[in-house]
Amino acid sequence: MQPHLYHLLAFLVSAGVVIWTTPIVKKIAIKSGRVDLPGDRKVHQHPMVRLGGVSIFAGTLLALLLVWWSGGFGILPQSKEFEVWGVTIGGLAFFLIGLADDLFSLSAFSRLLMQSIVAGWAWYVGVQIEFLSIPFAGLLDLPGWISAPITIIWLVGMANSINWIDGLDGLAAGVSGIAAVVMLIVSLFMDQPAAALIAAAIAGGALGFLRYNFNPAQIFMGDGGAYFMGFTLAGVGVIGLVKSTAVTAVLLPYLILAVPIVDMSAVIFSRIRNGKSPFKADKRHLHHRLLQAGLSQRLAVLFIYALTLWVGSLALAFAGIPSGIAFVLAATVLMGYASWQVFRKARPS
To answer: DSSP for 18-40?
Structure first.
């Protein structure tokens, strides 16, 4: 099989498994009473199943196992093999942490502690941020005692940032799917096929889940799905992009995932500024503010999709991909149209 066909195979298998298994997961969850009830911070008005992450995880894992069995990962050097296993097994652990929270409502401290331990293990086996890009000074090599906490914060932070934006129908799945497609393209361009395979599987699972999760949603992914996708995207960014010594490459994963990163950072800053715990849930996220401005769920989600696609196009241009500027121009036009629709639909203040 041609090498590039393995990436298509990973995408299609993951999407197919998700589309096939999600109704099954929904049926089992309803029979067992595993539903998410409406609440003050929640937009949905009726009980909803929030175990869709089971299907996303199953689709991604089965796709990667099939590619591995068919020789798609090729002969990797030991260090690269450890990195791939670090992302895969770390994603499994984050999924299980989220699933346990979906089923048993774990405390925030216990979730954070377990996530930090798993991220620390991932760093130990090779999923490491080894450079920082300093403006006008180039790259700064990081010793292990600095690399470890920075990597752990990145992995844990991204997992939680995807979970935090999972507040509207299809929002987290769409943002993750778009980011994964951009990471797939950039990883292939930078000759990182193993990272690209993981990105392809994540993209297929996330976009396939939109079949049931886009507004009006039939099922939610829950913490299990959000933690899994957030950690895996962060891991792919490390092993596929940050490992390069190019200054622009080091910045790429932060640019691709800028929407959830900026949203989480702004919310934490706002809570601290108002004397509240940064971990106390509220309605300060971008999607909440768009709803408060009078937008429909669907328009709010589509606007954030356009924003994610726009920063993704900037990443393609920074990576030096041919026609990158054309992608930026097209995404800018789309972003302009989406912004105009938001301006037109928003309530006067």
So the answer is: HHHHHHHHHHHHHHHT-EEPP-T
For residue 349, the tally of other CB atoms under 10 A from its CB is 5
Burial of 34 (0-12, 13-18, 19+ CB in 10 A): middle
CA pair distance 303, 282, nearest whole angstrom: 21
Buried b (16+ CB within 10 A) or exposed e, 74-93: eeeeeebebbbebbbebbbb
- The bridge status of strand 138-141 relative to strand 131-134 is antiparallel
According to DSSP, residue 242 is labeled I
The string of pLDDT tens digits covering residues 132-178 is 766 556 677 888 889 999 999 999 999 999 999 999 999 999 999 99
Q: Tell me the backbone φ, ψ of residue 165, rounded to 5 degrees.
A: -85, 0
CA 50, CA 60: separation in Å to the nearest integer? 18
DSSP E strands, 115-184: 131-134, 138-141
Q: Which residues are paired to 134 by β-bridges?
A: 138
pTM (two decimals) = 0.94
Pair of tokens at residue 295: 């937008």
335 to 172, 235, 260, 319, 328: CA distances (angstroms): 19, 28, 17, 21, 10
Tell me if 166 sits within 8 A of 301, measured CB to CB.
Answer: no
Would you state the structure tokens that stand for residue 182, as one six-digit string?
A: 């951009």
β-partners of residue 141 are 131
Count how many residues are written for the chain.
349
Name the β-bridge partners of 131: 141
Going by pLDDT thresholds of 50, 70 and 90, the confidence category of residue 16 is very high
Residue boundaries of the structural domains of the chain: 3-129+136-345
Concatenate the DSSP letters of all residues of 259-294 into one string: HHHHHHHHHHHHHHHTT--TTS--S-SHHHHHHHTT
What pLDDT is recorded for position 247? 60
Residue among 89, 77, 158, 98 nearest 124 (CA): 89
Compute CA distances 332 → 65, 312, 321, whole Å.
38, 11, 17
With CA atoms as reference, report the closest residue to 224 among 60, 10, 67, 4: 60
